[in-house]
Amino acid sequence: MAEISSLRIDPRSGFCSSNSTFYSKRTPFPLPSNRSLDITTFISSYPHHGKTAFIDATTGRHLSFPELWRQVDSVSACLSDLGIRKGNVVLIIAPNSIFFPIICLSVMHLGAIITTSNPINTAREIAFQMADSKPVLVFTTGQVVPKLARSSLPIVLLDDEQVTAEATTQVRIVGTIDEMIKKDPTDRIQVRDRVYQDDAASLLYSSGTTGASKGVISTHRNLMALMQFFPYLTFPEDGEQTYICTVPMFHIYGFGAFAIGKLTTGSKVVILSKFDMNELLSAIDKYRVTCLPLVPPILLKLVKEADRIRKQYNLSSLQSIVCGGAPLSKDLISRFLDKFPTVEIRQGYALTESTGFGASVHRAEECRKYGSVGLLSPNLEAKIVDPETGTALNVNQRGELWLRAPSVMKGYLNNAEATAATMDSEGWLKTGDVCYIDDDGYLYVVDRLKEIIKYKGFQVPPAELEALLLSHPQISDAAVVPFPDEEAGQCPMAYVVRKSGSNISETEIMDFVGKQVAAYKRIRKVTFVTSIPKNPSGKILRRVLMELAISRI
């Protein structure tokens, strides 16, 4: 990274005209100098005054900070007994649970690598990830065990759900997490190799919306950069914070921020095993949650059901909502604030490849920058690059966002070609997102580079049309994708989920949008569906919809 003190940087925008680079306006923080240090030891060294680390919203089980670290020691020792060593990959396929952080911290403490998978994945999808990552041990639930029938790997169960006799004969179950956490680590010898900051710590898989799913290698140092950011977000005047984890812990959002991240601040995290709107609202009410992280579809549902929600649940403790996964429209933000005027909306932007780093909104005054995902994270550099010419652009100019920071991944597992296409020789990560940074240094995400619709040479951003569609009172959800057209090249096509009881027509939708956009942006085709396919972070799976559209030609 450049020596910032010698550069002439515009204090307002953070832009340096001499190298066309934007620099974070946030106060930088130093990374630990000790080369031999693992992320678990690093997190456990943080001083704090918190009492409860995690609460299971379903069972009510509480886990204090001392209990957490004792159980991490116990599980680490058990893993060592099972032969887990530095560099081994350990897979966890499970919904959110109070055990998720214990397992992740224990694995990484040994220098082994934690990889995660969505428990609703099919046996084929799980088999693909296992073939790619080559784990030596699996933590999972009884419900997932039948999907592992063809695997000979040892399995540790996370629940007491009955596994069928047939499934038991096809897999090798070596114990349960309850047995592990009850072991006394003090009278056992733990074999542990020296772990360095540059060693791989986690292997999370990217969403694969623009290609095959790829394993993202993040190092202990990458994770330390993210961990040091969370205390930076903590403000004494906000009081003790209680977060509720609705986002999946197998994704960078849930893994980085809530499975391990909030441990550096002493905050309390309430864990939901799966998303259910009523269970979520009940937990906010019961545990007096102050901060709700979510993705745009859930925010939209809160807005549309606000009257019912406020009658049934006491949400007075809620201070803020943190939204990531996709940009929010100004209209949706305004509608939310109208329904919940005392709750701040703090948007953010990050990638698995940047280990959860990117941009974020912190304080009330920053929330007023409607549509922005915030200021660049500390220690981060950015460029806005013309995707056609490769030229670095200036303030308020749109192009592909490139990032460089201590949190940027080591690379993709077993995929040198994809790594080379995503990272250049100077360490710049090409995000594939079309963005711009304004005069005040705020980042705006316009769209995905590969998702831009080209109508007769004009560029049409799907997100803009989706925001309009979602503002219609009879539309519950929507997605816009390109539809092949012989004359125009591509036409905007909308997949629409009608609100219950609505009979809005294709013509009415096209007229509604057509009145508010330039002629080349008009929607030319509408298909009604019952739901919009999305990944765990809330991003629309446009590729799935595009393939569906083409199949019907």
TrEMBL record:
It comes from Hibiscus sabdariffa. Residues 464-539 form the AMP-binding enzyme C-terminal domain. The keyword Isomerase does not apply. This is 4-coumarate--CoA ligase-like 5. It comes from the Eukaryota. Belongs to the ATP-dependent AMP-binding enzyme family. CDD domains: 4CL. Keywords: Ligase. It holds the Pfam family AMP-binding_C. Residues 48-413 form the AMP-dependent synthetase/ligase domain.
